[in-house]
Here is the input.
Amino acid sequence: MEPDFLPGTLEMLILQTLSRGANHGYGIAQHIQQISNDALKIGEGSLYPALQRLLMNDYVIAEWGVSENNRRARFYKITATGRKQLSQEKRIFNALLVGIARVMETP
Amino acid sequence: MKLWKKIRNLLNREAFDRDLREETRIHREMAEEKLNQLGTPKEEAHYAAMRAFGNPTLTQEASRLQWAFFFESFVQDIGFAIRMLRKSPSFAAVAVLTLALGIGTNTAIFSVINGVLLRPLPYRDSQQIVVMKENESLPNVTDIQRHTNAFSVGGAINAQPMDYTSGPEPLQIRVGLVNSGFFETLGIAPTMGRIFSEAEDVRGGPRLAVVSYPFWQSHLGGDPHAVGRPILLGGNSYAVIGVMPETFICPREHADVFISLWVADPNTAVDRDVHFLHTYWRLKGGVSLEQAQADIATIHNSLAEQFPAEEKERRMQLIPLRESLVGDVRPALLVLFGAVGLVLLIACANFASLLIARGFARRQEMLIRAALGAGHGRLIRKLLTESTLLSFSGGAVGLLFAHWGTRMLLALTPAELRWLNGIQMDSRVLLFALAVSILTGVIFGIAPALLAARTDVAAALNEGGRSKTASAAGHRIRKILVTTEVAFALMLVVGAGLLMKGFSHLRSMNPGFNPTGVMTMYLQLPTTRYAEIPKQTRFRRELLARLNSLPGVRIGMITDIPLGGNYVEYDFVIDGRAPIPEGEEPKVQTLSVMGDYFRVMQIPLRAGRDFTGMDREGQPLVAIANEEFVRQFFPGQNPVGSRIRWARDTGPPRWITIVGVVGDVKHSGLNQPTDPAVYTPFPQADEAWKRWMTLTIRTDNSFSGLVEQVKAQVWSVDGQIPVSDVQTMEQRMAVSFAQQRFYMLLLGAFASLAAILAGVGIYGVVAYTASQSTHEIGIRMALGGQRRDVLRLIMAEAAKLTSAGILIGIVGALALTRAMASLLFEVKPGDPVILAAGATVLALVALVACYIPARRAAQGDPMVALRYE
Here is the structure.
């Protein structure tokens, strides 16, 4: 399942991933897939456009570096604005989940 | 700042692309490595990673899109379209030219429609001004003004030729005899000085003149102190009191100077029976045309009761100002607009057809684009950008055509359209051209774009790049387009044919006289020196005597020349018939003649005798009637010897004996019926106001020098009399053809254009069919088929399309040409000869258009054809 069923969800997941430390595109996709137990599979067709959106809004910055197995890779790092944005999105998302859960649980 | 970042990104586009490309490549490699580690063979891991990643171009495109300005892809598309079109200049040229012809003709005709029907008239609140359809007399105008509840003010005018003798040589100008309300009704104030007041607009009032701007410029030298200057009009001195603005145009008639009718001609001003004034009325606020009409009907009823002789038989009808100005030409203009609309549709059909053909040719390109990840929508947008770019270019070139076309139209336009002065390319015309360009580009580009972008990559690749289904659908659409083109073109050709037939009818009309070799010129005797009839007669007699001394000429004169647009009607009574109630007597055209008029014009004498020198003042009154008069009032009888008298004569009855009958003359125009008419000798004239005459001179020699000789003779009798309106009778005939000729030429041009465009359309489709069946042709010929059969095979398709188009076109022509009934002279809209001729013309066009590609196909080398593909 592609995790952009709600607009902005993918960006939130990426920011959450990066809040644990800088990572490259492939790493981000792998992380999300593993943590979600393969429930969320991110196509590169949506990952890179989403990264560009985050870059444009200054939520992340990117720089070229060297990966764990000595590969050149482009690492994305979350910024202060990005962290603020992430916590705000988390709040909204939680409220949304609670709301949806209530509706679904009411017979 | 987002904007700043976007711009920076735009400037570093190359670095951005490189980063992204690199990054995604690394991503793929990491995935591949992982798979490899998990035990997938190296090669397989590579492809699996590629598959998993999806379309890299698309990813890149989508990523880049995040940064793009909204118009960026549009600009890109335009750049792309320009590059594509520059690569196929002949396609672009044909498409642009086709559209330019369609848009150009439409814009040109629209500029006429805009100038004549749409632009506001140059008067204040012109929609508040209404016009009395009938001419009025001044007493009626005054009475209406006194009793009306509907109008705030009414204006009256009659423009007459008058001599102006303040210049270096006597000159005939047109003077508007008006009432004081005339300028107020039109809502135009003078740019200098003032207009005459109501108090000055009375019998014996001061002689004052308001002059037009052109008159002020050319005759008063644009003198800033012109106000107060005296000018001599008709032998009287008038003081200039005002100059009208440059923009002022007198509706319906031309006038150089305006003077008060009361002051200039008080005897006519009091005559209720002289209905000669054009009247304009300004509606009070909130009064509708219907209410005004009801108001005027009430007033007319009471007038008819009071003055049955003058008013009983008459009507008073109001129409809007614009209708009175353009009433006659509106249907003609709408027909022309419809015609150019059809031309545009044909042009657009060709355009669409061209695009479809180009779409086939670019299938490979589209497939590759789609395979590389171009979205369906993006492809369509690209193609639409291309077609819109073409239609814009077509519109631009079309504007150029329209610019020339409008000039040509103006040169051809009959005078009654030209006066409006508004035929020009204003912003509304430009907007029209722009709208037409966009609409043609989008509407006629959309189907070809959808068709071309219909790319099922997998299926198409299997077919070797040729999607039969799409090209078949495209070809079907092109066939329908061509059939429609033929149908539309036929409608236009039939319309033009009908006009041509009507025009040739008109030309072959016998006007009742022989115009060849006759020169005419107009004279008017000034009131000051020729107020009495004997003085007028003395002048005429002296002039005729002197002119007769010129070698090789025959001279006559008449009050109102045929086709000159004027005549005077009298009510009359026939001696010995039962009395008729006053106001219900029959009317007859009356014309005074002198000299050898009938022989000059070669109007045949049917019975009785011509006038002689003995038919003069003091002798028994005589008249010559025309055949229509006999037909209506003496059917089956010889009227010679019968007597008539004018019903409005006062005093003892003056009986006039009919001494002869002459042939009918088309007095009011070649397409008008002949009215009953009676000719009387000038010396027996009963009305001192008939001071004008047109000389008719038949010469065996050429006209060169004749006019100067005649002028010299006129001025040897009276050096103060202007000679004007010098025209040969053949020129007068040409003027009366002018309008019909104008419409015929225009519609003829549009029909030719339509036929050519339809031919181009047929050519395109047949050429495509021929090229598609090259293979088949090769096989046929290799197996011993004849060239003739191949030719027939290809032409059969064109024949089918053309005949279907012709059938539809005939039905359409039957329906549509009815709209032009008012333009046709003695031709029925469904004229079978014209329908057949039109169908033949189009069949020939189609034959030529398909013979060329068909022949080319048939002459091809069968070996080449077999190797094809």
